[in-house]
Queue: 4 jobs
Job 1
Amino acid sequence: MVQSLPEMPDKAGYFGEYGGQIIPPELKAVMDKISDAYEEVRKTQAFQDELQELYAYYVGRPSPVYYARRLTERQGGARIFLKREDLNHTGAHKINHCLGQALLARFMGKTKVLAETGAGQHGVALATACALVGIPCEIHMGVVDMKKERPNVTKMQILGATMVPVTRGTQTLKDAVDSAFDEYIKDPVNFLYAIGSAVGPHPFPKMVRDFQSIIGKEAREQFLAREKRLPDMVVACVGGGSNAIGMFTEFLPDEAVRLVGVEPAGKGLDTPDNAATMSLGRKGVLHGYRCYALQDENGNTLPVYSIASGLDYPGVGPQHCYLRDIGRVQYEAVTDDECLDAFLTLSRVEGIIPALESAHAVAYAMKVAKEMDPDKAILVNLSGRGDKDADFVAGKLAL
């Protein structure tokens, strides 16, 4: 057991040297009010009861842990298990923190909830949660991602969200974040920016982690009940890092469990077309917090790329940065080609179509399973389903 991991973040929102609130004083005051409101409401039994009831009867939790027998037999070596977050209402893990943030917005009396989205899963989940609690929702999305993820755009519109197409920059996730933040600072008193991952200024990395930690809590209990032991390895994809930190948190004290975050190598780490922040990034400041970020020699944020719209972010959550530095979590990168192979393999061998984001984690598990003994077990967080990606993949591969 690891005894040395401190309670994090600290009062200033730092995980070691990462995180914090690197923002103007007037915005810091707003963030502090959000933090105070979160700390107040999360300790109330009424809030916890409502959230747990929604998880059970609205989201459909607990999501099951599934033994991928045919995939295991195909790969050889270690057994591969999947934590089926793809079976949640709205099709991904994002609903876990969106419900929490929507309830917080209602508690604080906010008049509008804003968000960015890349793959659209956060946008769909937030539009769903806002419809449920009766608060207007505005989603900023890069036009490149809107074309790629058209099914999710349609869902957000059906759910009543106002869509804001983002045409600046690379017209993808980072630019959607910038656009949503610009709108948010017009009235931060009455608006709530519901950040879509474990990133941004404090308290968002902590808040999103707390809401997502239900994944790891369930998975650890389920795996122990089923296998009478813990998995040897836990794997999750990492862009901003919400699904991964949700899965990893409960396993952090278990030193024997190897934790692996898988980021997008895109067209290759030796090309500019990737979003491999942990592999190639340097310490810097992005969107109001300190983290590893992909930057040029002058400290300017680089354009990033991934076949998975939800992973093409130039930074990463501050807790991930800290866990990388202390060596508790290992971060690896998977290419587009490896991702597509895993996408099709899981679909055709297990009848499960994964999100392209999740397929990065599946690809890594497929690769390392062959190198491990058959008595070992890998648990993959299958963070979302691939309905949104099906047409794009079919067109790309001429299926």
Job 2
Amino acid sequence: MTTGRALTIGNFDGVHRGHQVLIACVRKIAEQHGWTSAAVTFDPHPTKLLAPHRAPKLLMPLETRIAQMKCYGLDEVICLPFNHAMACLSPDQFAQQILRDKLNAKAVVVGDNFRFGHKQAGDVQVLDELGHKYGFLTQAIGAVVVRGCIASSSTIRHLLAAGEVSKACRLLNRPFSIEGTIVSGHGIGAKQTVPTLNLETTAEVLPANGVYITSTLLPGHHKPVPSITNIGIRPTFGGDKLTIETFLLGPFNEQPTAITLFFHRHVREEQQFPSPEALRTQIMKDVGRANAYWRRLPKWDTL
């Protein structure tokens, strides 16, 4: 058994700035005491089991969430299966069986709105009392506010639904991203407007329909390529199915099979044009705005 863990508990969807503060606090405590730093998360999201009709669409899949948490320097990310047995644990049982016996917790850092145990009966005060009983310290961290906006997964979902990707970036401390495979399009873009990569993704959350300044990470590359992306139904060509089309503004050697797409700024709403030529003219204007954006950010690839 480990000598002890300093840990934080939550769903960590998005791994936003609030989560990052929790992780930083856990790492500091662990380093001070020679403990292992860890984050504990759950799969599936508890609401998907307990109230599926209210379950939020997730900002990132589990594998991406775990990888992102590890990027912030944790020794471990522990994913516990959330099932009915877990859901039925009282706050006392959770503290004893999971935090003390299973995880050997010595310090637990949570947000000040943390709830746990059957029917969310436990709060931060209960956790602190149980910590004294079962031998771990408890620390609660207040909400992180960025330019008057609370960093939370639900806030980020609302911003993305409104196309406010720049504000979402600030709360995430990085661009919002999705990933997926490249599929064949109708071939119209390459012939009549510009050649695009057509992304097929299983992402549960997408920005609102529109045109965005993006960057695109290709397989085997470490630096994303500047790009511009349209999310929408392609009304100029009579489309009715949602597509994600990306036009790369930098060189690439071969057609990729998969990409990761980073959203930096909203450019305009999707609109119907009288002809493909008019659409191509607008795309070139959009490209100009994107190039101007990147020129103002010479170190954009490190954001």
Job 3
Amino acid sequence: MQPLKIYNTLSREKEIFKALHAPLVGLYVCGPTVYNYAHLGNVRTFTSFDILYRYLTHIGYKVRYVRNITDVGHLVGDGDEGEDKIGKMAKLEKLEPMEIVHRYTNDFHQVLSTFNLLPPSIEPTATGHIVEQIETSKNLLEKGLAYESNGSIYFDIEAYNKQGGDYGKLSGRVLDDLLTETRDLDGVGEKRSPLDFALWKKASPEHIMRWPSPWGDGFPGWHLECTCMSHKYLGDTFDIHGGGMDLKFPHHECEIAQAKGAYGRAPVQYWMHTNMLTVNGQKMSKSLGNSFLPNELISGNHPLLEQAYSPMTVRFFMLQSQYRSTLDFSNDALKAAQKGYKRIANGMRNIKRMQYPAGIVSQPDEKQTAEIQAAIQGCYDGMNDDLNTAVTIAHLFTLLKKINQLYTGSLAFDQLSEETFQALKSTYITILEDVLGIRVELPENWESLTEGFLSLYKGFKEARKYDKVDEIRATFKSMGLLIKDMKDSIDWGFEE
């Protein structure tokens, strides 16, 4: 099996993944700023890293997955001036800031649970690490990499680069170009350079969220929070840092500078970034009216949606595109994903109930065996090629074809060895459930309910009460299901 390769944003190449302290892996992903409801961009990003977390665990690593909650310091406009996003929402809704944080953190957790994302190992908050942020600011001041200005502390980009730093390397930005781009700004205020960024900001009188510091009451800079939390739980240098591509600059660029300055080492081996969402080819945004929340997608309650789409349909849809590719939402694409998901789910139901018949003498068909083995290998090759879930899903459909042939009898069990059958069954279930996080969506007690309906169906059919037969069929169809009249039995499945 080929080794796992990850596209490293820092080197702009796919690199073989080598853990610093195998089998341990340190993974940090920038979490949400909890001032509003979780959006689909959040879901796409965190689903991508959920897959990484699952797959690393599946291939034998012990992963410490840290995903933070930003509950202070992220200002409107993502810069160093303006209101705190959470503080602004608190004023609008006349609530305490921590009420806002609690409400939208709960929403975030609920949304991710709906889409079957695993919780991280640690979920630290920025407000829970104020002490560490003050200490790191002191550290950078002592090293001449930061300066105080009117009660605020700023990171000094020029001093950092003079000490061997390489600000701009991650994002590919050239320092001179960045300076040219910012020359038109109305001065630099308290900063020595417009590129310098806040480690600690002095709180204005109207600023709600504030803490005492050696420089007066203030609050931490957005970039510093992630540096301090990742360092506390994962050390000076850890394996993987992830986030959306919109965080590459300036957020992640600033994280690297702070960490190198404070701890003397590059903080991360592999930087990973997910791509953006579009709707019918346009960038998703509120201003264009083409942005919808996850619950709107599930309910279908949005002008751009022709119907509702289940959580697993949406998850399956997202996984049909590699995480570094743009993901375009459209009704046609979602409907195609719905069909694909139902086919996959039917295969899951069927293979879980299949057992290799006892006592048969197998005469393995070499062609069938080779096709199954190649598809199993293909599932792992896809995942090992920078988590290319689209390739893995294509090979799962090859395995699904074999499952369906076994189910209908067009492929006899004795054409496969028991070992090949078990490999087919194990791979299909494990890759779908454990790695891709796809589950069969059914109400509680569904199996006993359907068995009762199918028993009635069989009785009506034998009694030639075809009006009742049609009635039960219509009931199943209304739920997106169909009844299958098999040669020796009656079964049900998802309508594909």
Job 4
Amino acid sequence: MNRAEHISQHGRTLLDRRNFLRNTGLSMGGLALTQLLAADGLMADDAKEKHKLPVRPQIDPSTPYAPRKPHFEPAAQQVLVIYCPGAVSHLDTFDYKPALTKLHGQKPPGLPTVTFEGPTGNIAKPFWDFKPKGESGKMVSDLLPHLGEQVDDFCFFHSLHTETAAHPQGENFFNTGFTMEGFPSFGAWTTYALGTENQELPAFVAINDPRGLARSGKNNFGSGFLPAAFQGTDFNAKNPPANLVRPKSYTAANDQSTVDLLQRLNSKHLQRFPGDADLAGRIASYELAGKMQTSVPSVMDISGETPATLSSYGVDSGTELKQEYAKNCILARRLIEKGVRVVQLFNGSDPSGGNGITNWDSHKDILKTHAMQAEIMDQPTAALIADLKQRGLLENTLVVWATEFGRMPFLQANGTGRDHNPDAFTCFMTGAGVKRGFSYGESDEFGFKAAVNPTSVYDFNATLMHLMGLDHERLTYYHNGLERRLTNVHGKVVKDVLF
């Protein structure tokens, strides 16, 4: 076979190879152009396609907390999350199930014989009586009399379900969207996207329980793989930062001159390393710490609160733990007043962090454990919500009351406590953007599983972000080869609860 015949016989193959290489090159160029056009929204044929394009905040590392625009007009400018570690029993608080009273002491078929901590006992009626509250007639247990008086302002989610029955992983999942550690919290995502209006205080503050951190610790308010600037700042009213108080021998003028000198030195140092985002971020965090020397002591000083206000929160009544938590509630209100974007308030801590009952976990003697936690949480929390409303702060603030999962409708084999229930639990919202005196979804007749409008934690968090003007599908961060987001690849906004 001569060369011409070879080319003629195999020409198609040779041409296909050339075409492949040429077309591949053109395709790669086209893909690059498509990506550039898509980033500017120029490839969208309609609003729906444009709506789904990822949007990354443009953040100057030297001013990471500068306010930024949301994706769309928000209902809420700020958010307060009141988180109760340990799994509050929905069946003994807000989710009324008459069938439990009817079947008390029985063991109907279809319910499991073994759950998270072992063998189960019989169906148990609520440990506290339920009564209708407010104009809506919402049934609430006597365990929470103060919050019960406010149900006409609340939007309940009664069909929540989660991915795990373990406390640390449950806390992680509720607050970060993943059961594993190392992922950004809701507060970190929100401040990463929006910054904050007050440049003298942190964008995100975590007010931990006076007894210590919850089981998942700082992961509940951590920044994960987001820049460290967006992690929650941890402090509470029990331990005011005495080291921030300027010594009497050191004048305000001395203090200011020192700050001015540091700013000049930092500026020159940054000029030597242009474009070093990490260095700029460190300098910004140090500058915020310097501003906090004056802003934090003043916001934490509650001595100027009126006696009536202190009394309404319960600062002057009940146990020492209740009084300390009440002070934390006042601190939360003061931070919201000052424009802090996200405040996370904890009622409960890790059981290993102290002696006795430290959270809502109630595998035994639920009468004692829940009663103690409710006595600490109920009055101060209700006063906080009422105070925010009275001051007009709920018009722009979303308040969330939450826990990681619920508890079972039957007792454990010990006969005095309820086991973990990831398949049905209750949380509520109030304030900016949500309906009031409204209940969404239902658990089944036993409160065992979400039955009507089942709502995942992904859905709950997607709704939170929507109320803050953020599309949970668009707010992403590229990490380890993936576009990460708070809701992973799940979640839908629960539009029925929106006002």
